[in-house]
Amino acid sequence: MRCLRNPCASRFDYLLIESSGISEPMPVAATFAFARDDGATLGDLARLDTMVTVVDAASFLPELARGDELTQRGLDQYENDERTVSHLLMDQIEFADVIVVNKLDLVDTASADLLRAALSRLNPAARVVSADRGRVPVGEVLGTARFDLERAQQAPGWVRELNGDHVPETEEYGISSTVFRSATPFHPGRLWSFVTEELDSGAYGQVLRSKGFFTLASRSHVTGLWSQAGSVVRFEPYCARDTDSPHVQELVFIGTQLNAARLRAALTECLMQEDEAQPATDPFPAWDAYGFDELCAHEHNPLPTVAGH
Question: What is the value of pTM for the model shown?
Answer without folding.
Answer: 0.68
